[in-house]
TrEMBL record:
Its main location: membrane. Residues 172-231, 249-334 form the SLBB domain. This is Polysaccharide biosynthesis/export family protein. It is a multi-pass membrane protein. Belongs to the BexD/CtrA/VexA family. GO terms for cellular component: cell outer membrane; pore complex.
Amino acid sequence: MIKSLAVPPKFKLKLAALALASLGLAGCGGTLSGAGPYKGDIETKNESYNLVEINANTIGPYMRGAVRPVQASIAKPVAPSARLMAGDILNVLITDNAPEGSALFAPLSSGGTQLKTRIDDQGMISLPYVGRQFVAGMTLNQVEEMIRKQLKGVTTDVQTHVELVGDLSGSVLVAGAVKSPGRFSTLQGPLTLLDAVNQAGGPVMEPHLVNVTVRTGSQVQQFNYEDVLAGNNMVLRPNSEVVLDRARQRFVAMGAVGEPGLKDLPAQNTSLLDALGSVGGLREANANPEGVFVFRMGEGTNPKPTVLRLDMRDPAAVFYARQIMIKPDDTIYVTNAAIYEWQKVISPVVQTMLLGRATGAYK
């Protein structure tokens, strides 16, 4: 506690002038340092936004929706008909049951003739007695039929079997915010969206902060990864691309809170109470619990911004804060208490007096 100081008369006028000047600066608003507008300014200067006092009668439009139930359905992988493309590697088995000595290829009893070929950049393969043939876009069954037709008349009893052993056409690319991005084969069976992400090591962020984009060449689909985990899984078409990136699920905390700044929403369905808790709550030393505001830009047919005000002195406000939904790009602003603002005005005056006494200015 500061003791009263004996100030000589000749300095009283100067100190009074200094005090009045400090109070005048405070009255100007904006001269004293602060994180934002004063509570009274927000409540009166509302021509450009709608100010909503949150209570039992007004909270309805701003409440969180019900949590979506987890789906019981599962994705059932069904092997699609892979269409070949440049870069695929084929294992071709040709058997020839012509009389011994006239067969061009080994008979089935000895394992047949095994040939391996890669589809070149022009979509072509090259095989003995078959020549160069365009196969890009074909299925494996169509390639088998093409080989049999090309060998008809060359040998009498030919059988073929074509197997895809190195695939680009049947693979899935996973990129973005995963631990091990890469291209993953579907040779062992079809991949669901969860299969592909898990093979890539999983996302590097919490599920609700991850958006998933699936491109198939003909359509684009987007999901939140938390929704995928809740049952919105799907079977991926061959040659699909899966990209995971950060969802814009952020809000700004300003003013008298524990940890102001740009923050990630702690959950997909975040309440005001959750958001305040994630930034350390109200700073008890200087926060004004009657001045908790949420600034929200206009949406849809209502382009006018909205400011929600909550009086945390009201015990019911804790329940209101639990129900109010915080949306991405919202700003939470907690004003300073009036006594704290007054202390910012008085502090320079007191410091000046203490400094003058310490240096002997009042002797």
